[in-house]
């Protein structure tokens, strides 16, 4: 049956140019494996009330039955739910990547959902989400999402749903969601590895003719005051999120994030910082720089100020050329190592395709200047701050 | 076409070494122009001097902080590893920093300058590593098996007696007993050319040293220890030193596949151990206490079971699986350097990895039968660790 579907798909070789534009190939002689990223623009914004997490459950359910096939091909599949899309990454040897990727595309766009697999995946997902819900990192992510986008916004809640919402989903609903949400006109595919430039033609047959269809997203309603959420722990979490618009200088913001993070990370001068992290995420309609610190509860507000100051200082004066060159030397290396694996490059390309950004270069870190860095810092608005920790005593005035 | 595509991964390397002076390091370059980064792997083929087991790894602990600091300046990353064959450092960073990264690595070819605090910290780290090897069943049982199969191959972390000697020894003399420029091997993978790598490593010199007094390395018998084990652990090992490595690898995979199918409630690992000391097939099973007897008999019958179910198709599938797994593992420059370097460190020549990769595809069912028969004739080494039980209240 499966091979029948593949044959039928191959017969649709007259895919339109627009569909082929949604399959990008980056030939890399010398890279030992092929990574194929299938990114489908479906997520929380498509989920009806009470059906939170149905995208992620659908993605897992539809791919579970093909795992033995992929195993037999020594191909690895990773499924990740993002705010605006669900990502499927296949890594396979040069002789099996095409079969592995076609198997995935048949499962996504041709096969119905297997109800037994759905029930199994639902049980597994509920268990995983229930375990995660107790972790402070997860709690912070939930609070920050709600603060940045607003509690009513689809992106203001966990993209994978909650244990309670996923537990309620039924196989029939998952099957219906697969048909309505996981459609080829929402998909882009990026292939990276030792392949010919025309390697994507066979896969283009799976893509619907016409341009990429992206769901409309309501503007966010961010919190206008810092959010303080009580959480029983011996440490406090501080998060500062800087939303940015579509035309923001993403590469400069990435560098800014690294530099600012260095100023607040653990060190001889800052032994009280247990952990510090920064992440730059780009999604449809813009993106965000999210910085987080783990510090003693009594110092949370002080560290929020220091975090904001670490970012804003780069807006005041451009760095001198020698200092900037030294910092850029480090940042450029770190950026390249982020793209070390072929799957990292495939993911980057697919996301850039989906957002309509240039795919000619994976990073333009080399072209950064002190002026670009400063301009990026100046363009950032005030951060949305969230505190998570044991604040009961402070609030009650004890 | 299929074999051509596979070959792109491991064989189309710019790795043909030119003749070199006897004292110069061997250089292998595998060009991967996909991204302007390079992984440089420097290894010094060396056994620790007699009585100074753990010396190579101690030097690594002493060198590492400075290496990490230097690599971080260009956004790079460092890894240090003491294998059975060599003292290995790998640094990954921008290809445009080749000269800087090479200079960073070359600093490891001299004994580290260490003060008392650094020395104490490094010795403490070695002590912890020695303890960790005995603490948990998974590493304990492999260590015990290794000690039986390769008695001369001591732990990378050394012994308590050698640590005491190292704490007072002149590190320059210890290093001098291990190091010679012709034992150095360089593997570069990434967007670099062989001439550039050769230039970057042209100044490799031997230090002046005094002879080192030899001592015997003794290590406490592992059987005297009790590792943590919530399940029963069963290990079987077969020496495979004289056998064809490609056929041994395929046989190892067939044993793994067969046992995993039969022992679904146990964790089964079957590994091909291959160092300059020789080869072995190691089988490690972790199983619930209630299944120990069955698991033990399955482990003891492993070779016969595989031999009984052998056919050409199973061998072909296993060989293809091995090759794909190699490609998957080697998908980043750092990992590719690790694979190429590990083969070079076994003293098999600079293109050993590519030859092995090609040889795996040629393995036949008869080759695997011959390996299974030879393993059986060589005899099995067995180590068992019982599951710990809570005492019932009286």
Query: Helix fraction of chain B?
Result: 40-55%
Query: Which spans of chain A have pLDDT < 50 for at least 5 consecutive residues?
Result: 1-18
What is the H/E order of chain A?
A: HHEEHHEEHHHHHEHEEHEEHHHHEH
Give the low-pLDDT segments of chain B: 1-19
Q: Beta-sheet strand percentage of chain A?
A: 15-25%
Indicate the topology:
The complex is a heterodimer of chains A (398) and B (394).
Chain A: H1 2-11, H2 17-21, E1 23-27, E2 34-40, H3 54-63, H4 67-72, E3 76-81, E4 86-92, H5 97-109, H6 115-133, H7 136-149, H8 163-167, H9 171-181, E5 187-193, H10 201-204, E6 227-230, E7 236-244, H11 250-264, E8 275-283, E9 286-295, H12 300-316, H13 321-338, H14 342-354, H15 370-379, E10 384-389, H16 392-396
Parallel strand pairs in A: 1-5, 6-10
Antiparallel strand pairs in A: 2-4, 2-5, 3-4, 7-9, 7-10, 8-9
Chain B: H1 2-10, E1 26-31, E2 37-45, H2 55-72, E3 77-82, E4 86-94, H3 98-106, H4 116-135, H5 137-149, H6 160-168, H7 171-178, E5 184-190, H8 194-200, E6 232-239, H9 245-262, E7 267-275, E8 278-287, H10 292-300, H11 302-308, H12 312-329, H13 333-345, H14 352-362, H15 365-378, E9 380-385
Parallel strand pairs in B: 1-5
Antiparallel strand pairs in B: 2-4, 2-5, 3-4, 6-8, 6-9, 7-8
Helix pairs in contact in B: 2-4, 4-5, 9-11, 9-12, 9-14, 9-15, 11-15, 12-14
How would you describe this structure to a colleague?
The complex is a heterodimer of chains A (398) and B (394). The longest helix of chain A is centred in the N-terminal third of the chain and has 19 residues, at 115-133. Chain A is built from 16 helices and ten strands. Chain A has helices at residues 2-11, 17-21, 54-63, 67-72, 97-109, 115-133, 136-149, 163-167, 171-181, 201-204, 250-264, 300-316, 321-338, 342-354, 370-379, 392-396; strands at 23-27, 34-40, 76-81, 86-92, 187-193, 227-230, 236-244, 275-283, 286-295, 384-389. Helices cover 44% and strands 18% of the residues of chain A. Mean pLDDT of chain A is 91; it is low at 1-18. Chain B is α+β, with helices and mostly antiparallel strands and 394 residues long. Helices cover 46% and strands 18% of the residues of chain B. A five-stranded mixed sheet of chain B has the order 1-5-2-4-3, with helices on both faces. In chain B, strands 7-8-6-9 form a four-stranded antiparallel sheet, with helices on both faces. Chain B is globular. Chain B starts with a helix and ends in a 9-residue tail after the last strand. Classes of the chains: A alpha+beta (398), B alpha+beta (394). The A-B interface holds A 28-33, 35, 73-74, 76, 91-96, 192, 194, 326, 329-337, 339-343, 345, 362 and B 2, 5-6, 8-10, 12, 30-37, 72-77, 92-94, 97, 320-321, 323-325, 327-328, 330-334, 336.
């Amino acid at each position: 049956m499966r091979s029948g579907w593949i044959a039928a798909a191959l017969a649709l070789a007259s895919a339109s140019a627009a569909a082929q534009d949604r399959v990008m190939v980056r030939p890399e002689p010398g890279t030992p494996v092929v990574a194929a990223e299938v990114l489908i623009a479906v997520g929380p914004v498509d989920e009806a009330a009470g059906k939170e997490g149905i995208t992620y459950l659908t993605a897992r359910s539809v791919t579970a039955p093909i795992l033995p096939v992929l195993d037999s091909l020594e191909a690895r599949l990773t499924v990740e739910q993002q705010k605006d899309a669900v990502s499927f990454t296949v890594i396979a040897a040069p002789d099996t990547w095409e079969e592995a990727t076609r198997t995935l595309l048949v499962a996504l766009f041709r096969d119905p959902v297997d109800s037994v697999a759905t029930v199994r995946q639902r049980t597994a997902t509920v268990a995983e989400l229930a375990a995660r819900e107790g972790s402070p990192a997860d709690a912070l992510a939930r609070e920050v999402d709600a603060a940045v986008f607003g509690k009513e916004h689809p992106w203001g809640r966990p993209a994978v749903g909650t244990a309670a919402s996923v537990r309620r989903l039924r196989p029939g609903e998952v099957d219906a969601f697969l048909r309505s949400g996981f459609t080829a006109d929402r998909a882009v595919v990026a292939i990276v590895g030792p392949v010919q430039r025309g390697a994507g033609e066979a896969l283009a047959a799976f893509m619907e003719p016409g341009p990429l269809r992206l769901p409309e997203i309501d503007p966010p309603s961010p919190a206008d005051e810092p959010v303080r959420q009580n959480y029983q722990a011996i440490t406090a979490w501080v998060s500062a999120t800087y939303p940015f618009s579509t035309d923001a200088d993403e590469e400069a913001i990435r560098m800014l994030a690294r530099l600012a993070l260095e100023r607040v990370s653990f060190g001889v001068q800052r032994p009280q910082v247990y952990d510090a992290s920064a992440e730059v995420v780009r999604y449809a309609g813009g993106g965000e720089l999210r910085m987080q610190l783990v510090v003693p509860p009594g110092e949370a507000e002080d560290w929020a100020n220091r975090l904001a100051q670490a970012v804003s200082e780069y807006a005041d004066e451009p760095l001198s050329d020698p200092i900037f060159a030294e910092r850029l030397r480090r940042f450029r290396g770190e950026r390249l190592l982020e793209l070390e694996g072929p799957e990292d490059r495939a993911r980057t390309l697919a996301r850039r395709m989906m957002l309509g950004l240039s795919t000619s270069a994976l990073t333009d870190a080399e072209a950064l200047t002190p002026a670009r860095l400063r301009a990026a810092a100046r363009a950032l608005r005030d951060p949305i701050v969230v505190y998570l920790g044991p604040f009961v005593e402070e609030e009650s005035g004890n | 076409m299929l074999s051509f595509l596979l070959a792109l991964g491991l064989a189309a390397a710019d790795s043909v070494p030119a003749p070199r002076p006897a004292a110069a390091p061997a250089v292998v370059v595998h060009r991967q122009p996909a991204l302007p980064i390079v992984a440089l792997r420097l290894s010094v083929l060396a056994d620790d001097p007699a009585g100074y087991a753990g010396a190579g790894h101690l030097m690594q602990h002493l060198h590492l902080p400075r290496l990490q600091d230097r690599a971080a300046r260009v956004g790079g990353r460092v890894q240090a590893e003491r294998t059975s064959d060599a003292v290995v450092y790998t640094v990954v960073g921008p290809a445009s920093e080749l000269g800087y990264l090479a200079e960073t690595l070359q600093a490891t070819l001299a004994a580290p300058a260490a003060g008392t605090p650094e020395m104490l910290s490094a010795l403490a780290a070695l002590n912890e590593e020695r303890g960790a090897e005995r603490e948990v069943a998974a590493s304990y049982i492999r260590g015990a098996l290794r000690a039986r199969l390769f008695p001369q191959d001591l732990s990378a972390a050394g012994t308590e007696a050698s640590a005491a000697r190292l704490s007072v020894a002149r590190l320059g003399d210890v290093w001098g007993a291990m190091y010679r420029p012709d034992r150095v091997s360089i593997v570069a993978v990434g967007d670099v050319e062989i001439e550039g790598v050769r230039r970057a490593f042209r100044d490799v010199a031997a230090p002046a040293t005094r002879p080192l007094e030899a001592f015997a390395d003794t290590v406490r018998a592992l059987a005297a220890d009790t590792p943590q084990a919530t399940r029963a652990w069963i290990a079987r090992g077969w020496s495979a030193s004289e056998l064809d490595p490609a056929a041994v690898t395929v046989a190892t995979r067939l044993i793994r596949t067969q046992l995993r199918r039969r022992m679904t409630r146990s964790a089964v690992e079957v590994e091909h151990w291959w160092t300059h000391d020789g080869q072995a097939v190691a089988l490690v099973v972790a199983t619930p206490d209630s299944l120990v007897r069955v698991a033990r008999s399955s482990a003891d019958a492993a070779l016969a079971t595989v031999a009984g179910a052998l056919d050409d198709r199973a061998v072909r599938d296993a060989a293809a699986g091995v090759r794909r797994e190699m490609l998957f593992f080697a998908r980043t420059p750092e990992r590719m350097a690790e694979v190429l370097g590990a083969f070079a460190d076994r003293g098999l020549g600079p293109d050993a990895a590519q030859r092995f990769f090609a040889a795996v595809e040629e393995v036949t069912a008869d080759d695997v039968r011959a390996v299974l028969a030879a393993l059986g004739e060589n005899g099995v080494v067995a180590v068992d660790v019982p599951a710990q039980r809570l005492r019932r209240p009286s």
